[in-house]
Amino acid sequence: MFQVRTDLAMEARELYHEEKQIEIPGVAVDQDFFKDVTITRVEVLEKEAEAIMGKPIGKYITIESSALRRSDADLRDEISQLLAKELRALVGPEKNLKALVVGLGNWNVTPDALGPKAVSKVFVTRHLFQFYNKDQDDDLAEISAVSPGVMGLTGIETTEIIKGIVERTKPHVVVAIDALASRKMERVNTTIQLSNAGISPGSGIGNKRKALNQENLGVPVIAIGVPTVVDAATLTNDTIKMVIEAFARQTSKGSQFYNMLMDLKDEEKYALIREVLEPYNANVMVTPKEVDEVISTLSQIIANGINIALHPGIDLKDVNRYIQ
């Protein structure tokens, strides 16, 4: 059977809701709306919901704005502040915070370079705390950061690298940034997901590794991800659905052609998809052509949000003036 691939909890919930027309048992959902931004909070509360959605128990916050495709500095600042607020709520009121920020992904592949690019813009301070022999500061948290690369470059599981760093530096929390995959092209590069349930490196390209989570690392892990690609099979499946719906609207109800379109089963649609993608081994990921510029913008938004959320004395004015 064809399975729609998505790393977004809100989309996993939508798929179930579209098919069953009911809410998933053990899932709580609420939304906030701003001028150009929608924030959706999905909380997986029970094991039954975890099995249905394929997402671990935890909180999933999605910040979505199609306006991110525009060059709008004010909107980017607004989303940075919203991201900082949601991240701060997930981290909790930890005094004298120590955090490790991890940029997952392959810096040689643009759609997968979100994590490394964001980490390069995070204001790291652990070396300053060490140099001045300080345990606390009113304005700054003790932040370290790393881009461990991917196993194809290092030969080492990313989780093993991060676990070694965690054991050595003893942070209170790990913040991991990675590229994700969406089921809809409209959400690619316009959506930011935060979660306190951890993350599997490589999930954006369907190459999941050992999870970065509290169970494996021994400290809470907050994941920040952006869908930068959509699976070609998923995109094709959605396109076929749209074509069928368009044909059905233009065909008289009750006609033989209308009934044939509406009776087309998922297996039959999948057979068409498989035939089209067979030359490519059905393993093609699609990303917009302006991905270079978008990744640069999104990495700045995420880094700004992290800097504002983790450092008590840093605000938007500071990150725009000093941290680029």
TrEMBL record:
GO MF annotations in UniProt: metalloendopeptidase activity
GO BP annotation list: proteolysis; spore germination
Major enzyme class: hydrolase
Alphabetized Pfam families for the sequence: Peptidase_A25 (PF03418)
Reaction equation(s) it catalyzes: Endopeptidase action with P4 Glu or Asp, P1 preferably Glu > Asp, P1' hydrophobic and P2' Ala
Keywords: Hydrolase, Protease, Zymogen
Propeptide regions on this chain: 1-7
PTM section of the record: Autoproteolytically processed. The inactive tetrameric zymogen termed p46 autoprocesses to a smaller form termed p41, which is active only during spore germination.
Coiled-coil segments on the chain, per record: none
Function: Initiates the rapid degradation of small, acid-soluble proteins during spore germination.
Family statement drawn from the similarity comment of this UniProt entry: Belongs to the peptidase A25 family.
Subunit structure: Homotetramer.
Record-given protein name: Germination protease
Species whose genome carries this gene: Alkaliphilus serpentinus
